[in-house]
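Hello forum,

I keep getting stuck at the same step: I have a sequence, I want structure tokens, and every attempt I make locally crashes halfway through. Rather than fight my setup again tonight, could one of you with a working pipeline run this one for me? It's a single chain of 241 residues.
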Amino acid sequence: MQANRVKARFSGLFVGILFGSIVPLAQAQAPVERPTVTGLNGIVLLKPLSFPECPTKAVLPDMANDYPTGQSYDLEAPNPCFAHQNHQLIGSAVADTENVTISWPKSNAPDISRNAVVSIRNGVVQSIEMHTFGTVDQDRIYGLLKSRFGRPSDEHTQAVQYRTGAKYKAIDADWKRPGGAVVIMRGLWDTAVWDTLDNGLVIAMSAQESARLNATRGRGNSVITPVRMEKARAPRAFRVW
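Reply #2:
Ran it on my machine without issues. Output:
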């Protein structure tokens, strides 16, 4: 399924969670009520996925090997919907354990991204991954997350230099959430792979999923470094070619 910003590489979502102390709000600032549930764009952690499956259509004969059911997804669905990443499941309900891609139509696109990769474990959402437009859009995304979840538990900026010599500051921020969940924003993500300044990342993840992924860290999985660990280093300057 065509995705505007998503790079559905679920193996790249694995996160090592290590938190610092929550930064208190200024005493002069009135308390702000924050949501006790954690979610992004209508997808809520530890709740069943409520989106319908995307419309399907018959595939051409030369695509039959990629779509065992003989059906593929309509790329212009009029409403938000999910698509099985496992094409053998096309036409069925969300499985107890699987990864799906959520897409929104252009006419009804959410604030963060038109696409999301969602991990389902034991019948409920365990993680939500959304790719953004990187440094181009990071200030707006940071503002949206801050307005919803409050001041980050940890944040810092890293220095980025493009091949033309232009310099940027990429925002990294983490929000600790009730029940051990976390929301992670990376203004610039996976530069070595995507070789670009326009790929950022937002992830919401349950404590259960964090523990599961931490247990697999020694099996070749990549890890998003927590902000607290990053702050112990000098800001990284690297070139993007």
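The longest strand covers residues 167-176. If your local run keeps crashing, start a new thread with the error log.
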